[in-house]
């Protein structure tokens, strides 16, 4: 592909022309090509990188496939996603992660970089063959039992130490299992009234505190998935101040929604960790702005209608997120007047790419970088109507008007989304 | 009264609640007649959909429905998860297809009645006969009626203003406690919650007039018009909420000694079934102050009143 993005706004606020030839950015500043795309008013960002995606394949193709998940990702401005290991079979060996990566290449819309399981079958007991997954074609560097916590302290210690072999990182779903037995929603005033079993913040915070100590002990890298409470942020802030290699992620829904929504008993709001209070939402927003939280990870978790059109306690945990993440990031960072497009580029692209070690993602917008790019119209406002390109429909933002719109996504120099419409395989 | 469903006691305003108590009194009079029957629900189909075992509540509803001349269908089903069999949605759509008018549902999942009432699966009326650890609104109505008639006699149009009611026991997991807290407050009563800290959520304590962890201190500080003892569910006994049944009985049980330190007229209430010797001893359970059998009897009248008003609403629509 050969195109010039004319009059585009760069993350630093300057307006320029960016030319792409083949898979690469060839120049910033000059008009070069015959195809000119007028980008007046649009913001150009490095393509987004999601560290926390559930593509559900293999095993749960009724919810999502690598293809439909890739489509949702492209529409959301993503050029790379990290599918979690809780598939059927579990991605706890080289065979499964290579299969998922191959499906990603076939879909051809985003880079699909699988995450491997920490323990065999996500059972939390025996380490999976993380070295083999790293050495496989899938080049796995992030390992997670997401959906379940690696709750055994000894297993967690060993896992953290072991992945140092290849500079891997353990992404922890922090949830003390005994404190959250049968838990349905945030433990607090609303759960007391609704009679739903509570999921207390300390169940997350105590695991984070422990894991930070283990990361310090082993000198290894810890990534904390979907941080949801004010108390967790305090733990991470303390860990970072001590120099521990800990990074933290927040989901778009924890930046916007609260446990008051459970009053509807609509399971579309049932998610793990649960929606918390307004005080938590505000603390998470501040932490994202001040850098205590490093990245936004969607925890895009598709589920079929039958898993959501039922009683709350029988419903599945999880909500969609890929197509709305950029808008929520804009709401929190830009429209609040508190941060910048440069910060948005960091949390949605640059830092997640660094954590995962993806060299061609989150690159500087400069000549020689691979053209993985996203264009946003920050002045558009979109009312969320449905689940979008995802195969599932568990859309918690339905009916909400959100700022901004991803107009174009460019993956390896080709449009995957143009004027908001999927173009097909890049 | 514009009542389509009865899902939560919190949905009732004071006027509606008092009207329901007044209607309960009228229905109680019907039950004293030789022919205990009204034609209100003639030609209507009421389904008692019970996902949890409950002889007392189901029988009470069934008698109420039959006294109002309804066609009654009982459906019981244990467990309701999609994996175990038919989903709630499919079951209810089946009932809708055979033209059920009212579904009375008992379910182990908190909010199930709310979900059903707000769904498009069924356009009839929904009565919550107990949902998980959330609410049991008809129990609260029959308790309020029992209190009003025992304290004030025929008291048409009156609430429970200034009445002091203690609810004692497993507040955290009790749908009876929640519904009573909401309804008794609406009716003007002072509700006091008494429970071990493991079984008393802070947020509910804050909604009450007062809350105590020590039963004896509560008795010292307040003159209760009634104490409502909650059943201790067996599944709590081995889940670290309290050390032993004996200790629970000692600290939070209603026994003769505590009973005799209260006002001579203090009513003793229990939604049943009782664990005698645990949350209540036989002296109290069998004393003239006990309302346990009144509660059972009034349950039929209160449920007739709710059914009567649901159908009345349909007529006005």
Layout: helices, strands, pairs:
The complex is a heterodimer of chains A (426) and B (317).
Chain A: E1 2-9, E2 15-21, E3 24-28, E4 36-38, E5 43-46, E6 48-53, H1 66-75, E7 78-83, H2 94-107, E8 111-112, H3 130-135, E9 142-143, H4 153-162, E10 169-172, E11 185-186, H5 189-194, E12 198-199, H6 201-218, E13 221-224, H7 230-241, E14 246-250, H8 278-290, E15 295-296, H9 325-334, H10 341-356, E16 373-383, E17 401-411, E18 414-418, E19 421-422
Helix pairs in contact in A: 1-2, 4-6, 6-7, 9-10
Chain B: H1 14-30, E1 45-50, H2 55-67, E2 71-76, H3 88-97, E3 102-107, H4 112-117, E4 125-131, H5 137-152, E5 164-168, H6 175-186, E6 190-194, H7 202-207, E7 210-212, H8 215-221, E8 226-229, H9 245-252, H10 256-261, E9 267-269, H11 282-285, H12 292-316
Helix pairs in contact in B: 1-5, 1-12, 2-12, 5-6, 5-12
Task: Describe what this molecule looks like in 3D.
The complex is a heterodimer of chains A (426) and B (317). Chain A is α/β, with parallel strands linked by helices and 426 residues long. Chain A has helices at 66-75, 94-107, 130-135, 153-162, 189-194, 201-218, 230-241, 278-290, 325-334, 341-356, and strands spanning 2-9, 15-21, 24-28, 36-38, 43-46, 48-53, 78-83, 111-112, 142-143, 169-172, 185-186, 198-199, 221-224, 246-250, 295-296, 373-383, 401-411, 414-418, 421-422. In chain A, the strands form five sheets. A five-stranded antiparallel β-sheet of chain A has the order 5-16-17-18-19. A five-stranded parallel β-sheet of chain A has the order 9-10-13-14-15. In chain A, helix 7 (230-241) links the parallel strand 13 and strand 14 (246-250). The radius of gyration of chain A is 20 Å and the shape is globular. Chain A starts with a strand and ends with a strand. The mean pLDDT of chain A is 97. The chains are: A alpha/beta (426), B alpha/beta (317). The A-B interface holds A 184, 188-197, 264-266, 306-307, 309-314 and B 80-82, 87-89, 107-112, 114-115, 118-119, 131-135, 172-173, 175, 178, 201-204, 206.
């Amino acid at each position: 592909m050969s195109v010039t993005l004319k009059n585009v706004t760069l993350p630093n606020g300057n307006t320029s022309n960016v030319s792409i030839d083949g898979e690469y950015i060839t120049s910033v500043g000059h008009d070069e090509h015959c195809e000119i795309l007028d980008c007046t008013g649009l913001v150009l960002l490095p393509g987004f990188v999601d560290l926390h995606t559930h593509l559900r394949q293999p095993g749960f193709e009724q919810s999502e496939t690598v293809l439909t998940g890739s489509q949702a990702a492209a529409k959301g401005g993503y050029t790379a996603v990290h599918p979690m290991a809780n598939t059927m079979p579990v991605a706890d060996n080289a065979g499964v992660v290579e299969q998922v990566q191959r499906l990603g290449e076939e879909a051809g819309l985003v880079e699909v970089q699988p995450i491997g399981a920490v323990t065999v079958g996500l059972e939390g007991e025996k380490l999976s063959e993380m070295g083999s997954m790293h050495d496989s074609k899938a080049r796995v560097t992030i390992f997670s039992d997401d959906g379940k916590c690696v709750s055994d302290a000894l297993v967690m210690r060993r896992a953290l130490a072991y992945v140092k072999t290849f500079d891997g990182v353990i992404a922890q779903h922090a949830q003390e299992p005994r404190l959250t037995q049968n838990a349905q929603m945030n433990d607090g005033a609303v759960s007391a009234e609704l009679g739903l079993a509570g999921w207390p913040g300390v169940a997350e915070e105590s695991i984070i505190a422990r894991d930070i100590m283990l990361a310090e002990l082993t000198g290894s890298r810890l990534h904390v998935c979907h941080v949801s409470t004010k108390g967790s942020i305090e733990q991470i802030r303390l860990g970072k101040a001590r120099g521990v290699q800990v990074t933290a992620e927040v989901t778009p829904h924890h930046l916007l929604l609260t446990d008051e929504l459970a009053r509807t008993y609509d399971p579309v709001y049932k998610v793990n960790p649960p929606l918390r209070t307004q005080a938590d939402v505000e603390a998470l927003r501040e932490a994202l702005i001040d850098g205590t939280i490093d990245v936004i990870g969607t925890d895009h978790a598709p589920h079929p209608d039958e898993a959501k059109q039922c009683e709350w306690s029988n419903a599945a945990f999880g909500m969609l997120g890929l197509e709305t993440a950029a808008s929520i990031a804009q709401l929190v960072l830009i429209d609040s007047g508190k941060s910048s497009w440069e910060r948005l580029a960091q949390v949605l692209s640059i830092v997640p790419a660094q954590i995962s070690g993806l060299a061609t993602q989150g690159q500087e917008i400069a000549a020689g970088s691979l053209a993985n790019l996203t264009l946003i119209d920050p002045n558009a406002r979109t009312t969320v109507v449905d689940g979008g390109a995802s195969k599932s429909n568990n859309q918690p933002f339905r009916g909400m008007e959100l700022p901004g719109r991803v107009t174009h996504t460019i993956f390896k120099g080709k449009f995957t989304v143009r004027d908001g419409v999927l173009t097909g395989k890049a | 009264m514009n009542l389509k469903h009865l899902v939560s006691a919190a949905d009732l305003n004071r006027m509606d609640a008092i009207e329901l108590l007044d209607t309960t009194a009228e229905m109680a009079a019907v039950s004293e007649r030789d022919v205990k029957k009204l034609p209100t629900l003639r030609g209507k189909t009421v389904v008692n959909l019970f996902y949890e075992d409950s002889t007392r509540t189901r029988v009470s509803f069934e008698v109420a429905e039959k006294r109002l001349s309804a066609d009654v269908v009982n459906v019981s089903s244990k467990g309701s998860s999609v994996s175990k069999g038919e989903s709630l949605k499919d079951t209810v759509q089946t009932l809708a297809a055979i033209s059920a008018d009212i579904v009375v549902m008992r379910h182990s999942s908190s909010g199930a009645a709310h979900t059903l009432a707000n769904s498009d699966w069924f356009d009839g009326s929904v009565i919550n006969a107990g949902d998980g650890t959330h609410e049991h609104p008809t129990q609260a109505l029959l308790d309020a009626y029992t209190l009003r008639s025992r304290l004030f006699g025929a008291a048409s149009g009156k609430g429970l203003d200034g009445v002091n009611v203690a609810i004692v026991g497993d507040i955290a997991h009790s749908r009876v406690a929640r519904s009573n807290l909401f309804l008794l407050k609406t009716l003007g009563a002072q509700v006091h919650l008494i429970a071990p800290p493991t079984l008393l959520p802070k947020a509910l304590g804050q909604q009450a007039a007062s809350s105590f962890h020590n039963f004896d201190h509560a008795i010292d500080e307040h003159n209760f018009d009634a104490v409502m003892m909650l059943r201790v569910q067996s599944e709590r006994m081995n889940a670290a909420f309290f050390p032993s049944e004996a200790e629970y009985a000692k600290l939070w049980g209603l026994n003769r000694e505590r009973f005799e330190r209260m006002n001579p007229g203090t009513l003793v209430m229990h939604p049943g079934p009782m664990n005698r010797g645990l949350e209540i001893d036989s002296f109290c359970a069998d004393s003239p102050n006990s309302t346990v059998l009144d509660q059972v009897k009034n349950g039929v009248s209160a449920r007739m009143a709710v059914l009567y008003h649901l159908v009345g609403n349909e007529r006005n629509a």
